[in-house]
Amino acid sequence: MAALFSLLPFFCFIQLSLVFFLEARNVGFTVDLIHRDSPQSPFHNPSQTRLDRINNAEHRSLISSQIQAPISANLGSYLMKISIGSPPVTVLGILDTGSDLTWTQCKPCAQCIDQDTPIFDHLKSGTYKPSACDSPACKALGPDYFCHRDACVYTMSYYDSSKSIGELASDSFTFGSTSGQEVTIPSVTFGCGYQNAFASNRTASGIIGLGGGELSIIRQLDEHIQVKFSYCLVHALTDPNVTSKMNFGSNAIVSGRGEKYYLTLERVSVGDKIIEYEAINAETGQEGNIIIDSGTTLTSLPPKIYGELESALKEAIGSQGQTAPDPEGVLSLCYKNGGSLKLPIIKFHFTNANVDLQPSSTFIDVPGDLLCLATIPSDGISTFGNLSQMNLLIGYDLVGKTVSFKAADCTK
């Protein structure tokens, strides 16, 4: 089964308008990321309070930890707006840094997800071209395809029971950048989905795959953006009117490790308290023990490491705070009336990178006038969630196989 390893998490959507040409080289562009709860988002619910939004985000991460998959089971929180075909038709896809294939719903749709935009009709596109079953693109799907006559039929299944089945094809993709300059890519391989389902109600058209495999958008734009992208996430849960940014190509500063973007976390520290972390991944037997996941809200750590981190925080905070249970039962370390607390910086010591996590990125307000640690224990794969990534410029370089971090004010 294909895994939706990560979908950049709180639901945001990226407004793009690019149009690349084959002769273009070393293109750099920046797009806006709009939080799903922003007034600018089609999913905005004006009746929800800030605490409601935080509570919903917690539950998305909780489901993720229960299924022991490095993803948000509700398929993330950021959306990308692109156009496909000639003439171009707008589609709204869930942005996913953990899977490769981009797909959208297509007519005739035997099983469809409700979406706000028109369903793509490939018969009306003059540049649509089905992929043959013996084509390199079809072979790149690995076990996730079968042949019907000469057509390549993809079968994508995700850990949360979401799925898409349809025809692999290529067509013109159009994106839009913050500069207003459009870029068109004449031929991008994608899935034209005829049987589709999300595990929860979403009105997106499909998935935008930003993983490290051959069929990801990033790999397909190799000659244009040198397989580099970066993003800078703002605290959209507390200020949904501010947009985050995603950069591609020459606009992107820094670097991903393999298709799942594994990092090696060597230790975690709070003040002079150091918590050692096993550097070897039990699943692969190699270095790379934590996944950086823009599609999961909360950070998750092995229970033993989490327990030591919680003890270190309690010691650092001391008697200034009174602990209390999270009424939702999601978060383990909470304090009453936390606004007056002096909270310590938590440091994540990755191989070749020490990242300071400010209290605004490690603790969140929850209903009941509580301030809680936005990290949970999990027996599954450890995940560096997107709350921990706030106000960090994080770059992925698929060629160099690196991820880099830089403290930043992501509102600018």
TrEMBL record:
Signal peptide (residue range): 1-24
CDD domains assigned: pepsin_A_like_plant
UniProt KW keywords: Aspartyl protease, Glycoprotein, Hydrolase, Protease, Signal
Cellular compartments per GO CC: extracellular region
InterPro entries: Aspartic_peptidase_AS, Pepsin-like_plant, PEPTIDASE_A1, Peptidase_aspartic_dom_sf, Plant_Aspart_Prot_A1, TAXi_C, TAXi_N
Cited SUPFAM superfamilies: Acid proteases
Domain of life of the native organism: Eukaryota
MF terms (GO), sorted A to Z: aspartic-type endopeptidase activity
Peptidase A1 domain segment(s): 78-406
BP term (GO), one: proteolysis
PANTHER family: ASPARTIC PROTEINASE CDR1-LIKE (PTHR47967:SF128), OS07G0603500 PROTEIN-RELATED (PTHR47967)
Family membership noted in the UniProt record: Belongs to the peptidase A1 family.
Stated name of the protein: Peptidase A1 domain-containing protein
Taxonomic source organism: Escallonia herrerae
